[in-house]
Amino acid sequence: MQIASSLLLAIAASALLLAAAPEWVGNKACQACHREIFDAYSQTPMALSSGPVDSGLLAESFAHADFTHSHSGYRYRIARTNGPYTMHLESTRAELPIRTQRTLSVFIGSGSIARSFLFQLEGFLFQAPVAYYAQKATWDLAPGYDRYAQPFLTRPILPACLECHASQIQHQPLTQNAYGPLPFLENGVACERCHGPGRAHLAAINSGSKTAASLIVNPAKLPPEQRDSICAQCHLNGEVRVLRAGRTPNSYVAGDRLSDHWAIFARSAASREVKVTSHMENLAQSACKQTSGAQLWCVTCHDPHRVPAANSKVAWFRQKCLACHDQQKCQAPPALRAAKGDDCTACHMPKSGVSDAQHVVYTNHAIPRRPGTPQPTANNRLRGMAIAPGNPRDLALAYAILAQRDNKPSDKTQALKLLSAAESTSPLDAEALLYLAGLYQQTGNSARAIALYERAIQLHPAQLTASVQLGAIRMQQGNYPAAIRLWKDALTKNPALPLVRGNLAIALWKVGDRTAAQEMLKKAAEWQPAFVPPPLP
Ligand code: HEC
Ligand code: HEC
Ligand code: HEC
Ligand code: HEC
Ligand code: HEC
Ligand code: HEC
Ligand code: HEC
Fold it and tell me: Residue 105 CB: number of other CB atoms within 10 A?
């Protein structure tokens, strides 16, 4: 009975999902009338930033997808024999006779720099541990995977990742990382991500209405904050991005203010250490932007629909600089400038070397006076970014997210202080409750943690953290049936939690269900083959 009703709920939710987005019409619908833009845009890295692995685009790079990671001793190989592209991995160490495979379904990244791969199992989507590095034309572990001594096959792909690289995401609401058979309906960054939903524009044109143009967003005609929000939705990272209470990763639509959906924080400038990880932040540091204000934005230099050909880039960008600067003003000796081919950006927007990391700024958008000027840096205190500042709840959450990510005691103290202050002024949403509960749990205050986790579960049935953590507390208390119930619930939201499965096996063993316990361990090893199971008591 229980199972049948939860299945019904899942079906109802996915029907809702499909019905909820009828205003999106897709790139193809724009092609007939805006053919030139359509054709040009289709060739850009943004348009090509994701898609099915089978698209043919990638065949050549797969030809040499074969390497061994020395630290773990695993060999990774991608091959297809009549069927789909499959990642095979096997241990080269005799004492570890592990081999397994995953079918790669989706790529992320145009490959200007790098390309990541995803696989889907039982509907759930994960990042593959391998990546292609285009500049060196080599295959290696994906960024961040190097530190694991085992192949890591259970990194869930959350909707926010796809929201920046793909369009019309098909996330299944009551899960962490389950998607429709196609995780997204449109490849890359679609027209409507920058122009908003197109259905009303089409309908108006088809009925001969004169207001058609006003029914689609032209970014250039928006007030500066809404205009800049369009590129910032993907090109502003800060140190940490916090989804505002009640928002989802896909609630922002072109024309909105980003700050109504996301709060984005950076370390405030004062001392000298911080990394700039996005173009929007970097540009904000330039004298050009600081002095020109709203007059200068991304599209002052970039055509959103096309990338200038390599042999016309110098002239393209010089022309952009000269719209504001008199060539004579540049104080570089003319001979030096001539030696650089009068390439303004060669000296004022130099490139750093391409690294294996993703999400770095290569071209210095701080437009320094002298090449080699170090990037401005910052201290440990967070501040809201101009385009997406937050309220006290968001700032508190930002520290909590950082505390979890970087494990710095000072962030933890700050998070606990700010979150409990926020809690005393207004009821917290589920997301904030989860982080506060986690902080209490770490400081040994289980009673508070339990109460907050229970409230979070009530408020937000799709969350998974509270079920996992509360299960752990119940297990410690010897309340095995409660732990079993909570962990089984967590596994419906993401079944690839080997540690949860390991502990669940012990709980099942404790209540006498030995067959289920052994099944559970077997399943853990299917998701994560190198998983070392806990000994059953
Ligand atoms: C049936 C033809 C047709 C289709 C299909 C169509 N458009 Fe248009 N679009 C037009 C016309 C006509 C204009 C008005 C041109 C003008 O008056 O300058 C326009 C104007 C625009 C503008 C400028 C609006 C402004 O205020 O400056 C944008 C942006 C735009 N379209 C985007 C899109 C997108 C995105 C799609 C696909 C979702 C699309 N159009 C589909 C015909 C079409
Ligand atoms: C906030 C938006 C955002 C999120 C979230 C995000 N990316 Fe990106 N990603 C970008 C942008 C913008 C670029 C290109 C410019 C840059 O490096 O800042 C990029 C670049 C990349 C590249 C290199 C592409 C190239 O140029 O060849 C890869 C690969 C990549 N991302 C993978 C991922 C994966 C995998 C995830 C999720 C696990 C992810 N990204 C999450 C915005 C995002
Ligand atoms: C990355 C964001 C982005 C994407 C994706 C995008 N556009 Fe645009 N589009 C813009 C911006 C910004 C402008 C205003 C440019 C300006 O005025 O300088 C614009 C302007 C336009 C205009 C009106 C002005 C003109 O140049 O005719 C049309 C029509 C248009 N886009 C159609 C499309 C279509 C069709 C697609 C998909 C094939 C698309 N755009 C994809 C950002 C985008
Ligand atoms: C929905 C997310 C999204 C939006 C909106 C977006 N971008 Fe991007 N942009 C990306 C991603 C992802 C990449 C990296 C593509 C890749 O290489 O895989 C990228 C790459 C770029 C690049 C580098 C292309 C190259 O030459 O390699 C430029 C320039 C750029 N974006 C400008 C803009 C501008 C200007 C806007 C606003 C008008 C904008 N983007 C809006 C996601 C986005
Ligand atoms: C929208 C107008 C605008 C554009 C476009 C623009 N700048 Fe500027 N830039 C300014 C303003 C305003 C200042 C500050 C006053 C000044 O020095 O003229 C400035 C300052 C500078 C400075 C001095 C920086 C310092 O720290 O003293 C350099 C160098 C510079 N710009 C180079 C460039 C280059 C190179 C480009 C093209 C890639 C460019 N700018 C594009 C408006 C612009
Ligand atoms: C003053 C001119 C200028 C402005 C304004 C500008 N860019 Fe750029 N951008 C460049 C140049 C020059 C390059 C290098 C292009 C190349 O070599 O292909 C570049 C490259 C990029 C790249 C490719 C990755 C990299 O770092 O080389 C991305 C992504 C990008 N810009 C995004 C943005 C976004 C987003 C904005 C607005 C916040 C923006 N740019 C504003 C001049 C500018
Ligand atoms: C060979 C490297 C080089 C090239 C190429 C170059 N610059 Fe410069 N630029 C410099 C140097 C060096 C300075 C002076 C720094 C100093 O001594 O303060 C400077 C100064 C400037 C300034 C600040 C002037 C002021 O009054 O504060 C601007 C603006 C500027 N350049 C714009 C440009 C533009 C636009 C171009 C392309 C037409 C360009 N530069 C090409 C090296 C270069």
Answer: 20
Distance CA 182, CA 180 (A): 5
pLDDT score recorded for residue 360: 78
Q: Which ligand is nearest to the CA of 320?
A: 5
Token pair of 128, please? 């593959």
Residue 478's region, left for phi above 0, alpha for psi from -120 to 50, else beta, is left
Ligand 1, atom 43: closest residue by C-alpha: 33
Centroid of ligand 1 to alpha carbon of 201 (angstroms):
7
What digits encode the pLDDT tens for the residues 246-265?
999 999 999 999 999 999 99
CA angle 299, 301, 305 (to 5 degrees): 55
Query: Mean pLDDT throughout 81-85?
Result: 87
Taking CB atoms and a 6 Å cutoff, what residues make up the pocket around ligand 5?
287-288, 291-292, 295-296, 300, 317, 320-321, 323-325, 344-345, 348-349, 367, 369
CA of 343 to the centre of ligand 5 (A): 14
Q: Judge whether 193 and 216 are in contact, CB under 8 Å.
A: no
Residue where the block lists tokens 């999106």: 24
Q: By the 8 A CB rule, do 412 and 439 touch?
A: yes
Q: Which ligand is nearest to the CA of 41?
A: 3
Atom number, ligand 3, closest to the C-alpha of residue 230:
2
Evaluate if residue 245 carries a pLDDT over 50: yes
| C-alpha separations of 487 from 473, 474, 504, 508, 523 in Å | 11, 10, 7, 11, 14
CB atoms within 10 A of CB 523: 16
What is the Å distance from ligand 3's center to 299 Cα? Answer: 10
- What would the pLDDT profile of 96-115 be if each residue is shown by its tens digit? 888 999 999 999 999 888 99
C-alpha–C-alpha distance, residues 17 and 197, integer Å: 16
Give the number of residues written for the chain. 537
**Closest by CA position to 471, among listed 440, 494, 449:** 449
- Residue with the two structure tokens 């096996």: 505
pLDDT reading at 21 higher than 90: no
Among the bound ligands, the one closest to the CA of 343: 7
Per the CB < 8 A criterion, the answer to whether 285 and 223 are in contact is: no
Q: Compute the distance between CA of residue 123 and CA of residue 178 in angstroms, rounded to an integer.
A: 5
- Residue type at position 381: R
Q: Which amino acid is at 58?
A: L
